[in-house]
Amino acid sequence: MGRWRDGTGTLRVLGGGAQGAGTDAEGDPEGAAGGGAGGAVDIPLTIASSYRARARGLLGRDGLTGALLLTPASGVHTFRMRFAIDVAYLDRRLTVLDVHTLRPGRLGRPRFRSRHVLEAEAGALARWGVRRGVRVAIAPGPSAPPPPSVR
C-alpha cells in the first residue's frame, strides 16, 4: 500500500453535476478542464501529504487555482488566512462526508471517519458539484506516485 507524495494532480468529481459550464462570470476558465464522460469535472489539484506541506497549507496565499488536498487530515483551521475557503471532508474511499465554508480565523471541527481534506476558494466546491455523498477521484501528476489502493 503506497502513500501520496507532495505534488500536483487532477481532481475528478464523479457525477457532481457541475454548474457554470467551464467559465466564471468574467468568462475566464474556472479551473475545470471540462466535463468528461458522465458529467465528471476535472480540477487542477495540489497534493500536500508531508507534515511541512500540510502545516503550510494555504497560509500566505491570496487565492487558489483549483484545489488543495491535505492527506492524511481530519480537520483544518483558517487562522492567519486571507480568504474564505470551502472545505470537503473525505473518507478513505474518497467519498465526501461533509462540506463547509470557513471564513478566516475559524476552526473547523475534525470529522469522524475523515482521512483527507479538500480545500478550495469559497463557492468553488458548489460550482464543481462537490457535496455530501459524491465520490471524487484523484489522478496524481508526474511528481506524485499513484494513490493507495482502496480495499
In short:
By secondary structure, the chain is mainly beta.
Structural write-up:
With 151 residues, this protein is mostly beta strands. Helix content is 7%, strand content 30%. It is built from two helices and seven strands. It has helices at 51-56, 124-128, and strands spanning 7-14, 41-48, 67-70, 85-90, 96-102, 116-121, 135-140. Strand 4 and strand 5 form a beta hairpin. The protein is globular and about 35 Å long. 35% of the residues are buried.
SSE diagram, text form:
Elements: E1 7-14, E2 41-48, H1 51-56, E3 67-70, E4 85-90, E5 96-102, E6 116-121, H2 124-128, E7 135-140
Parallel strand pairs: 2-3
Antiparallel strand pairs: 1-2, 1-7, 3-6, 4-5, 4-6
